[in-house]
Fold Glycerol-3-phosphate dehydrogenase [NAD(+)].
Amino acid sequence: MKAEEFPDKYKVAVIGSGNWGSVAAKLIASNTLNYNIFHDEVRMWVFDETLPSGEKLSNVINQTNINVKYLPGIELGRNVIADPDLHTTVRDANMLVFVTPHQFVDGVCKRLAGKLRGDVEAISLIKGMEVKVDGPHMISSVISKQLGVNCCVLMGANIADEIAEEKFSEATLGYSENKEVAERWARLFATPYFAVTAIQDVEGVELCGTLKNVVAIAAGFVDGLDMGSNSKAAIMRIGLNEMRAFSKRLFPSVREDTFFESCGVADLIATCFGGRNRKVAEAFAIHGGKRPFKELEAEMLQGQKLQGVSTAKEVYEVLESNRWFDSFPLFRTIHEICIGSIPPSAIVHYKAEVHPSSLQQKSVS
Ligand SMILES: NC(=O)c1ccc[n+]([C@@H]2O[C@H](COP(=O)([O-])OP(=O)(O)OC[C@H]3O[C@@H](n4cnc5c(N)ncnc54)[C@H](O)[C@@H]3O)[C@@H](O)[C@H]2O)c1
Ligand SMILES: O=P(O)(O)OC[C@H](O)CO
C-alpha cells in the first residue's frame, strides 16, 4: 500500500532505532496493521553503522526483521522498514515519532527543517532537555520550534527490553491543546500490554521523564556504595521533591497529579531499580569515581546512551544561572559527583553542610 494511493491515511515514521526506538517501532507496527486510519508501513530511521560482520545495521534489520545491535532477539514486524536516509524516512510521513538520545535531536531537526509535509504532527519519546544561552528548552519545544509542528510527549515506567517481551506496563501521553490528536497518538501506541493515559500537561510529563534520570544516577551511587534500602528510598523521596520543585519553577502550570502518573513516581521507581543510568552509576561508585562515566557507558552499554549524566549537567547550569543551589542540594551534588569534584559517598552527606545563612538566623541583634 503506497502513501500516495491513500492520501487520507496517516503515515508514520520513527526517527531513531536504539533500544527504545526499536520497541516503539514494534508497538506502532502492530497498530498500523490493526487500524485502518494508518498506512501499514512504518519507516524507521537508522543512524547507520557497520557491524563486526562487515554488514550495515540497516540491511541486517531489513533482512532479519530484528535490530541485532540494539534489540537482539525481537522481531519488529515485517511492516517496519529500516531506512538509513533521514529524508526518505520522513518524505511521505505526517506522524513523526522522535526517539533518539536527546543529545542528537538538535542536529536531526536542523537536517529536517523545511523538508516535511505541511500536515505533520510530532511526538517525542525522548527523555532530556537542552540548555542554551537563553535558558532551558524541553526537547518537545526544540522539535516544535525548529520544525514548526505541534509536539506531544510519551513518557512512563518503560524499560524497553521488558515491553519488547510484551510484559505489561503503562505510559503517560502529554498534550497541550488538541485532545483529538492526543487520542490518535494513544491509539498508535496502546496495546493490551501497553496502557496509555493522555493528560493535558506536556511540560509536566516531559520534565518527569527528564529529571528522573538524574535521580537514577543518585540511586546507582547508593547501590554502588551498598547503603541499603532505607538510604535508597530517602534519595528517591528527596529526588521526587526536587523534581517537582524544579518543574514548577520552570513551568508553574505543571500539574501536581502528573507526578502520580506513570511518567512520575512509577518511572522513578522503575528507573532507580532497573534502568541503565542506575546500573552505570552503580559501577561508577564501585570504582570510587575513578573511572569516568564515558568509559563505563561505552564498556557497559555497547552503543546505548546514558541520559542522566548530561541531564545532571544541564540541570546544574539552570541552578547556577538562577542561583537556585540552596533549594536543590541533591541535584547539585549529583552533578558534582559525576564530574569528580566530590566523591560518590557525598550523596548522603550533602545535608550535613551548615550554611552561613542558617547560622545568621541565631545571632542576637
Ligand atoms: N531504552 C529504554 O528503556 C528507554 C525507555 C524509555 C525512554 N527512553 C528514552 O528514549 C530515548 C532514546 O533511547 P534509546 O534507548 O532508543 O537509544 P539508545 O540508548 O539505545 O541509543 C543508541 C541510539 O543512538 C544512535 N546514535 C548514536 N550516535 C548518533 C548520532 N550521532 N546521531 C543520531 N543517532 C545516534 C544509535 O544509532 C542508536 O540508535 C532516550 O531519551 C531515552 O531516555 C529509553
Ligand atoms: O535505562 P534508563 O535509565 O535510560 O531508563 C529507561 C527508561 O527511561 C525507563 O522508563
